[in-house]
Batch of 2 targets.
Target 1
Amino acid sequence: MAKPILKVADFSCRQSLGYLNRRLFNLLMPRAEALFADAELTFSQWVALMSLRDGIVSTAADIARHLDHDTGATTRMIDQMEKRGLVTRTRSTEDRRIVNLSLTPQGRAVARSLVPRIVDFWNEALDGFTPAEVEALTELMRRLGDRLETMPIADEPRRRA
Amino acid sequence: MAKPILKVADFSCRQSLGYLNRRLFNLLMPRAEALFADAELTFSQWVALMSLRDGIVSTAADIARHLDHDTGATTRMIDQMEKRGLVTRTRSTEDRRIVNLSLTPQGRAVARSLVPRIVDFWNEALDGFTPAEVEALTELMRRLGDRLETMPIADEPRRRA
DNA sequence: TGACATTTACTGCCTGAGCAATAATTGTCT
DNA sequence: AGACAATTATTGCTCAGGCAGTAAATGTCA
């Protein structure tokens, strides 16, 4: 941290990345969830569905880690997806703690049917952005996330000397 | 939308801006809120506090618009901040629908005392980023937010032909 | 002026999600 | 082997926040 990037004096919440991220989140969620309103999916469920499809995750703990989600909430989310016939649970035989998840044909069909809508949505949202800008935004958000993952959550708020 | 940026075939949730935004959000919130744990502030309350301090907002409706927040939740958020002596409500005389908000000295003191922590946090989080990269990320997130604001929330999911 | 829409603030209702604790299973290390 | 830590899945408790509806005040427009 040789050269601090931010100074106390210029801090304004309008250009704070925290505020911007929150704003983006609040703008994005309702618009995204409106796209799969007929499938009655939460955004979390949508991400879980896609992550299972792409083989990125295979258990509840994987999902919780992948989207930095609470494990309890993840269990309940999977309950719903199982009830709707999108995924199945299978207790692992090698490690009996683990419950393996897999997409049902219906789950796969739902995922496939929703992708075009999402792609259309993003193409409309990113109209006016150059491919390089989209690439840059994606990469910077990924890097910032990776960086934050290395920073522990402070138990006690740090007192300034 | 002359040249679509995304194609259905390459869609992967790992590099989706929706997923990245959600991930950033889930990483950011607990780390930020841990910073003002002793003030017992929510992230929303923190943003509201700063927005009032900077004169960006002056009513509940302003806050709701500024952080794309539910108006009901905003009312209850202000209830808490008022109960803690951070803000005061004053019914406007010109427009009797409006309740003007203003920071109390305590509210101002809390805001001032927390800013350095946030700045420190961001300087640590952004270590490894060039000033240009931070600038680019901020600007791209702002632009995407502005773009999304112009896009209405779909009532009916659009059927693809 | 009067009908109608809009804005502001607020309330009940319900859901998604975070926190803490638990049981079962597995890994680690002396 | 045995004590202890770590991991997985799960549940109860609680709360922030979204949705819909309401009342009061204001704006709009024929």
Target 2
Amino acid sequence: MFAYKMRGAAGLANLDRSLISALPAFSGLSGADLDFALEGARSFIVRKDAAVFEQDGEAHSFFLLLHGHVRVERLTPDGQKVVARYISEGELIGIAVAMGRDTYPASAVAAVDCTVLSWPNARWAALTARIPALSGNTLKTVGARMEEAQNRVVEMATERVEQRVAHTLLRLLRQTGRKVEDGVEIDFPISRQDIAEMTGTTLFTVSRILSDWEGKGLVKSGRQKITVLQPHRLLVIAEARN
Amino acid sequence: MFAYKMRGAAGLANLDRSLISALPAFSGLSGADLDFALEGARSFIVRKDAAVFEQDGEAHSFFLLLHGHVRVERLTPDGQKVVARYISEGELIGIAVAMGRDTYPASAVAAVDCTVLSWPNARWAALTARIPALSGNTLKTVGARMEEAQNRVVEMATERVEQRVAHTLLRLLRQTGRKVEDGVEIDFPISRQDIAEMTGTTLFTVSRILSDWEGKGLVKSGRQKITVLQPHRLLVIAEARN
DNA sequence: GCGGCGATTTGCGCTATCGCAAACTCCGCG
DNA sequence: CGCGGAGTTTGCGATAGCGCAAATCGCCGC
């Protein structure tokens, strides 16, 4: 199931401070603290479609995504999948230990080949003890994710599917959009099915909506690829009064 | 808009450690730390239907609910209301400062007359500096709320209305249920409209569902009051495969 | 004890969206 | 360079749940 791959010599060797010095979680740390933070960390490569960790699995480590994109998924008891969010470079994931959990509440699957840093859970206590700001920074991160989750609840409760898809696309653009010649594209492969699992609908409905938008010149989309040509018009759809 | 009421002499006078010593946020503190924690705190009474704080309002304070029940509401731009959650006694609310926000992301409205403790935001830094465990405890609280929010996203994405209402009722029972003679009742007044706003449906549909359940002997409900007679059968409905 | 109002119930159309089947497209591999 | 399969498109019912109107109920205050 798991498909870690140690990155050659780097796995246990010294990791460079520069890997994490610019990240919000470790912002404002001294060089010594950065080195301390990296003690016990290992770097891995996780191949596309492999899991960084799995829902309900024993939480042994926490992680930092150095490079790539990770999809956080929750599986319902009857096997339906819901995509909770995508994680971008530089974010912490799998911090069950910080929340006092001993299993992961969701799975994290690489959307592309990823580089990940991992620490054994036991390091968390040492880290927060020596670096008090880490708790506060993490609290901010978790707070932001909670607000995003609340926003999605509100969307699901009050908006129609087309608006939810529009909001979701805009959110993805904001988090991981890449400017290209004629618009902004999502910088990893994403299928109709993925979007359906983010918006609580079916791939059929997503396909119909994207086809419609394409007809209107709003987006250009193909196999696992979406480019938004006119973000402002998408916003109009997203925010339309019912 | 706000309707605080100072509690006689207690407002600025010494507050007793016993108010907070048993609460998870302050668990494991020494007496001196408890006294320190209470410095700068004031106690208020918030009348039913009055706001503790309001969405988008400048976050000047954070709060602890000592007694009563508070409903956390979010208002959409077009005026629809969504109930994010109910807060029970002993929980922190309005901790925007901990998440680095300067406005409240939601409103908090008293479901019954409540007693609330409040601190000016500036105290947060002092508290977390002197009491490092507070950050960690708060992280756990926020983590738990995030998971609850994620659960609701999953429910909204995968379940039909009846199942969502069942899950919501069960959640309310768990958080605030009070055992009575013939079942478990929700401990504060709650309308069909409130439940609709929690589940993303309409009061009509909620009414139909409750009438149906009442006919089957599952619940007994009246004006702003719901008693669950057979929680296990409700669970069966909640967890039904589609 | 009565009046009035907010809360609830219930009937009846209506439609957004699902669910499935079938066909099509395109990428990657041999 | 053609094959196979995953990803996508599109048509066509079926339906859960909405939205509104109208009636009823039951608390609370006077």
